[in-house]
């Protein structure tokens, strides 16, 4: 594993990594267990991903933990996920502090159970001075809902004469998204072999590199993150320019 870390160019790491943590249910089923067993075994992968990102100097990591569409799952599973979230956040607080992890959240947080909201707000407050890495949990998050919410808030400002319609630009929109305090995503990783975005950070991933792996989320370890980073570093991000233009600037 240290070999993999050594192959990484630390001057070219993604600043913001977003992960769609998928495959918990299949991981559990493969062991003849209930889906919730998979969610319970996802914590090691979360720790490894965050520690790996921190090792290489990535400043932002965003984890898709619960989507707006996930509310449509059986109530038993939704309830289990919510209580798992509360217990995990509480349990991990000392480690967040020790590793200087700042916790952040994006999504329609008002929709979460009051208890979850309370614990989340508390953890965000407790860790706000940490500066090594920002760990954002996407909870009750949907990119389309986020955009609708942004449009409503921008429209209110226009109606109240606080904002001139001609001043609306990409920056204004960015500032009204849940991710207003986060940079664009550089690398998006999805586990479990599914190759789709599932309503995650559509605006923010406009120019992200996408990486898909067959690994099921509970099996994800640092070395899998490093594989993704090595793959990312072998790509050329052109942002619309030509390859020759990129070579000159390097
Ligand atoms: C991802 O694993 C976790 C959440 C969506 C909360 P899944 O629960 O989607 O697992 P699969 O895709 O059914 O295997
Ligand atoms: C996406 O996973 C949401 C999270 C990982 C939280 P899903 O497993 O819900 O996605 P789809 O519905 O299969 O695309
Ligand atoms: Mg899934």
From TrEMBL:
GO-annotated cellular components: cytosol
SUPFAM superfamilies reported for this sequence: Undecaprenyl diphosphate synthase
Broadest EC class assigned to this enzyme: transferase
Pfam families xrefs: Prenyltransf
Binding note for cofactor: Binds 2 magnesium ions per subunit.
Residues annotated as catalytic: 22, 70 (proton acceptor)
Gene Ontology terms: biological process: polyprenol biosynthetic process
Alphabetized HAMAP family for the sequence: ISPT
Subunit composition and interactions: Homodimer.
Designated name of the protein: Isoprenyl transferase
Organism from which the protein derives: Tenacibaculum adriaticum
